[in-house]
């Protein structure tokens, strides 16, 4: 998620490689469950069909991740594997803001809207600081809706594929959350197999 100050913003491929719910022994509610998801985010920064576009910035300045004040709007595809043409499981929609005066990081606020399978219609809210120089970034999962009500956790992300000429990149997101999903573990696990 835009970890590099390069001309090619990080593409994030959301791929559900593996979703393994594990009964948690911690959390605020005994029914709280730990879920790990791996998805791939596909991000395109150049036309045609760019999925990440700078829409505002300080007049007279170049709009970029390292230029304080620049705002990007994002609508990236989330897929089950690193292949951009693999099954789409959702969209990552939100904003990136170049909020560091020294250009070292951006602020992001992104809703992950699941559009396929068991979690279709449910959302997770990602929010935090993305340090551009980091090999692996991490932001908070502040909450969610639908199947992810009361969710909380974090996600790491790292670029796993870059096509500079096409302005395209893929990132792997490892999402780790506690949530109060009411279905039992076996049902969730079977459903995830259906998705992938
Ligand atoms: C935990 O969550 C379950 C399911 O929503 C609920 O029925 C139960 O009352 C909750 N327990 C506590 C202690 O909050
Ligand atoms: C851009 O999106 C349109 C509408 O979905 C599609 O018809 C077109 O093939 C896409 N162009 C490229 C180069 O992917
Ligand atoms: C995936 O789709 C893109 C755009 O339609 C296409 O250029 C590319 O060849 C496809 N990749 C594979 C592995 O099918
Ligand atoms: C994300 O998950 C994949 C698959 O389990 C793993 O190979 C990778 O090391 C993880 N990345 C991070 C940053 O934890």
UniProtKB/TrEMBL annotation:
Its GO biological process annotations read: phenylpropanoid biosynthetic process
Would you indicate the residue range of the signal peptide?
1-27
Q: What name does the UniProt record give this protein?
A: Dirigent protein
Asked whether the keyword Signal is assigned, the reply is yes
Keywords assigned: Apoplast, Secreted, Signal
Q: How does it assemble?
A: Homodimer.
Any Pfam family matching the protein: Dirigent
Cellular location(s)? Secreted, Extracellular space, Apoplast
Q: Which family does it belong to?
A: Belongs to the plant dirigent protein family.
Q: What does this protein do?
A: Dirigent proteins impart stereoselectivity on the phenoxy radical-coupling reaction, yielding optically active lignans from two molecules of coniferyl alcohol in the biosynthesis of lignans, flavonolignans, and alkaloids and thus plays a central role in plant secondary metabolism.
């Amino acid at each position: 998620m835009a970890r590099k100050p390069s001309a090619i913003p990080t593409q994030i491929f959301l791929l559900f490689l593996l979703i393994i719910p594990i009964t948690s022994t911690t959390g605020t509610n005994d029914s709280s469950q730990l879920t790990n998801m791996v998805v791939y985010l596909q991000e395109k920064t150049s036309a045609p069909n760019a999925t990440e576009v700078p829409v505002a910035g300080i007049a007279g300045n170049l709009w970029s991740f390292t230029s304080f004040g620049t705002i990007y709007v994002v609508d990236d595809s989330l897929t089950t594997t690193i292949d951009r043409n693999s099954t789409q499981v959702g969209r990552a929609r939100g904003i990136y803001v170049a909020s560091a005066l020294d250009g070292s990081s951006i602020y992001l606020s992104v809703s992950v809207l699941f559009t396929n399978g068991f979690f279709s219609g449910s959302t997770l809210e990602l929010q935090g600081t993305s340090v551009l120089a980091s090999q692996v970034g991490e932001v908070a999962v502040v909450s969610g809706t639908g199947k992810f009500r009361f969710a909380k956790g974090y996600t790491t992300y790292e670029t796993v594929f870059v096509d500079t000429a096409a302005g395209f990149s893929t990132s792997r997101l490892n999402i780790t959350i506690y949530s109060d999903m009411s279905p039992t573990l076996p049902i969730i696990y079977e459903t995830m197999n259906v998705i992938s």
